[in-house]
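Provenance and format

Records in this collection were gathered into a single text stream. Each protein contributes a sequence line and a token line. The two records reproduced below are adjacent in the stream.
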Amino acid sequence: MFLSLADNYRAVLFGSSGGIGSALLEKLAEDQRCSKVYAGSRTGKAARGARVVPFRFDLQDEGSIVEAAAMLDENGPGDLVIVSTGLLHDEAVSPEKSLRQIDQDVLRRVFDINTIGPALIAKHFLPRLSRPGKSVFAVLSARVGSVSDNRLGGWHAYRSSKAALHMPVRNFAIELGRTHPNAVCVGLHPGTVDTPLSKPFQRSLGPDRLFAPSDTADRLIAVLDGLNPGQSGRIFAWDGEEISP
């Protein structure tokens, strides 16, 4: 597991009830080197365990993020913060196939969840990372957020929100390096994972391109464990490959 973090490290996981988030929660809760996992979801419920402390948050409510940060203050600094949240589609949102489908309300909501919400979490949790040892802040992104890698177009709100997320990741890494020289701040592309988020888009995928959540969690943890502060501010895929902006 996380061999590069201090013994008895503390982890904070936003989005612990999602497909990838629940798999990450299970892995962190099993890690004997992890003393506590603060598991955040919209309901505030999580699998109970000796190391798991559930809390409620709403990405569109900064006050709930402030409350979560206060909870961490009561228990000491955090060593690992993972933001495992995101919106591609739901009952009111569908990825656009053409610019004619762009909708102002959808754009606002997707940016709220995919860009603004993670930025607010960073605002309140980056200053609370432990030092002087290694600490990690990671947020799930997507390869489709790469401008230079875009060959297909479409999915305007989702692509744009993830591309917009990459800039604050870089900005935060620069600022964080001044106060936490051993910290790592990165974005992660998990690949296509067998979760409700990807379910409508799995039909054309071969089995080698669709990952189980548990396997994805193992890969993402391995990537984060191997990163050093010199790699902060970048975006990495599940296999450790750096993704270009």
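Adjacent record:
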Amino acid sequence: MSNCIFCKIVAGEIPAQVVYEDERAVAFRDINAQAPTHVLVIPRAHVASLAEASERGERELLGHVLDAAARVAAQEGLREGGYRTVINTGAGAGQSVFHLHAHVLGGRPLSWPPG
């Protein structure tokens, strides 16, 4: 999508601190970090949300994004101390960029419930 900020990051039109990428996903540091480590993992293809991905039957893509999130967590040294993976779906749940993305958060104790 031409006006999607995450699509522009994938296309290299907007700079980002990329920490992981493969043929289907890109991961980069969140500019509004909520933890010492806060990385966003996105599919290269534009999918607006988890709900849309499910409606489209994108099971393989969803699995790939979660696998990439686990790889990022390991790469960032979060496995031993633990980490949280979050996907917000819809504005009411806090989704502010309508391109599917998983947050990988860690590096400090994370309380529950989150908010």
